[in-house]
């Protein structure tokens, strides 16, 4: 029984649980590492900085985000973006979100070209997804040159955001059009879900090499094709420079950024979220009682999607009508 009152970092035994707790509190006040336990799940944490990051990531406050299409609420920003990215939204899809983002960045692009100077809080080269492969899955020579040029330009001009006045000197970039997409992407104009139906199994079969998974429902199949398993998209965090394969993943990263990434605590975070979500989501100046960022659906998120319902290949409403069995 004594072993359960054992302090592992100090290799000390205590006669009671209360004595062990008192020891941990004393060590915590003195700043000794490895004496912090999460009061929600009991996980042992290195220090108060890791404790805060753990609480944000694993026990963050419910954001209660309602999609303009009426679905929700979504507890996390990443969950809300996944709702759109995976084709579950009745108003928006990933291709339309790309188009909205591209329209928002045109003014910045024009200003950059006129002044030939970097623009403050210009994150477009980070939030517009890079497509590393062409529709056949090959990395083209021109894409190699472009990627190398962008990497060198960003390394030489972007030194993090420790100083709030610093600005990335991003290259001019335009998001992919519908016709640049993989022919197996549900957002591609030529996509026809009937081509993937196998009557012998009564399932839609994934065409990707090495996969071959089957799905009985159209939406589940299209969500799989849009998912990170086969996506050639890549979103890069402007602070820590790590890349993520999906919009859901990058949104979850910046929402719960850990001790290695301080983007969420920077003065530019609101601008970044606005550009990443094409104005759908807006961080508030007020915070939850645990210090985490509050979000709301922004004005563009309430107005723009209502002008875009249906008529776009890959759109949930369009697909339901076109692919109804």
From TrEMBL:
<keyword id="KW-0479">Metal-binding</keyword>
<dbReference type="InterPro" id="IPR013087">
    <property type="entry name" value="Znf_C2H2_type"/>
</dbReference>
<feature type="domain" description="C2H2-type">
    <location>
        <begin position="204"/>
        <end position="235"/>
    </location>
</feature>
<keyword id="KW-0862">Zinc</keyword>
<dbReference type="Pfam" id="PF12874">
    <property type="entry name" value="zf-met"/>
</dbReference>
<dbReference type="GO" id="GO:0008270">
    <property type="term" value="F:zinc ion binding"/>
</dbReference>
<protein>
    <recommendedName>
        <fullName>C2H2-type domain-containing protein</fullName>
    </recommendedName>
</protein>
<dbReference type="Pfam" id="PF00096">
    <property type="entry name" value="zf-C2H2"/>
</dbReference>
<feature type="region of interest" description="Disordered">
    <location>
        <begin position="146"/>
        <end position="172"/>
    </location>
</feature>
<keyword id="KW-0863">Zinc-finger</keyword>
């Amino acid at each position: 029984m004594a072993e359960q009152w054992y302090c592992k970092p100090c290799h000390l035994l205590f006669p009671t649980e209360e004595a062990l707790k008192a020891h941990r509190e004393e060590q915590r006040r003195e700043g000794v590492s490895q004496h912090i336990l999460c009061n929600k799940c009991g996980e042992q944490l290195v220090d108060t900085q890791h404790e805060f990051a753990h609480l944000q990531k694993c026990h963050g406050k419910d954001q209660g985000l309602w999609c303009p299409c009426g679905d929700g609420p979504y507890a996390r920003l990443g969950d809300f973006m996944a709702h759109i990215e995976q084709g579950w939204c009745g108003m928006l899809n990933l291709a339309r979100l790309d188009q909205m983002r591209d329209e928002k960045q045109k003014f910045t692009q024009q200003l950059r070209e006129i002044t030939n100077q970097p623009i403050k809080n210009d994150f477009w080269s980070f939030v517009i997804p890079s497509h590393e492969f062409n529709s056949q899955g090959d990395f083209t020579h021109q894409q190699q040159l472009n990627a190398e040029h962008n990497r060198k330009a960003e390394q030489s001009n972007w030194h993090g955001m420790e100083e709030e006045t610093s600005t990335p000197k991003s290259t001019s970039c335009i998001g992919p059009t519908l016709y640049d997409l993989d022919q197996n992407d549900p957002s591609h104009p030529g996509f026809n879900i009937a081509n993937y139906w196998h009557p012998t199994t009564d399932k839609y079969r994934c065409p990707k090499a090495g996969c071959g998974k089957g799905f009985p429902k159209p939406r589940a199949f299209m969500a799989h094709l849009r998912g990170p398993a086969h996506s050639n998209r890549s979103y890069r965090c402007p602070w820590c420079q790590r890349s993520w394969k999906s919009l859901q993943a990058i949104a979850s990263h910046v929402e719960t950024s850990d001790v290695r990434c301080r983007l969420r605590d920077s003065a530019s975070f609101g601008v970044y979220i606005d550009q990443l979500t094409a104005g759908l989501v807006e961080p508030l100046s007020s915070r939850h009682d645990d210090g985490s960022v509050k979000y709301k659906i922004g004005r563009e998120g309430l107005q723009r999607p209502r002008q875009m319902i249906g008529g776009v290949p890959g759109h949930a409403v369009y697909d339901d009508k076109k692919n109804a069995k």
